[in-house]
Design goal:
Layout: H1 3-10, E1 19-23, E2 26-29, E3 35-38, E4 44-46, H2 49-57, E5 59-62, H3 63-73, H4 78-94, E6 98-102
Antiparallel strand pairs: 1-5, 1-6, 2-3, 3-4
Helix pairs in contact: 1-4, 3-4
Length: about 110
């Protein structure tokens, strides 16, 4: 399946709870101090501090858990927050700053069976 189509579907399906968001790349700054997210190919993207914070949170978290964490600290409408977050994560995925890892149902990293 095409990477962009998969990104579009990954957050909306019920199975998204079995997919962990994993950040890729690094954070840097350009000459004027603007934050950059740099993917593994060395492509740099100018972003704001909110994008950096969200990217840092993609450390093996499901989209639903990320959404609830963002909602907890946000004053926005739930629907607006979810749509904005889906768009941001989708963009991160499309430019290789976030990857998605499938995990077995009932087993998440850090849990014992």
């Amino acid at each position: 399946m095409d990477r962009e189509l998969d990104a579009g579907n990954m957050l909306l399906k019920k199975e998204a709870d079995n997919r962990l968001l994993l950040r890729r790349g690094t954070v840097g700054n350009d000459r004027d101090g603007t934050p950059l997210l740099i993917n593994g190919r060395g492509e740099a993207y100018r972003v704001n501090d909110t994008a950096i914070s969200l990217w840092h949170m993609c450390n093996g978290i499901t989209f639903e858990d990320l959404y609830h964490e963002v909602l907890r600290i946000s004053s926005g409408d739930e629907g607006d927050v979810k749509r904005s977050l889906e768009q941001m994560v989708r963009q991160f995925y499309e430019i290789s700053l976030v990857d998605v890892k499938e995990v077995s149902v009932g087993r998440r990293p850090g849990t014992q069976t």
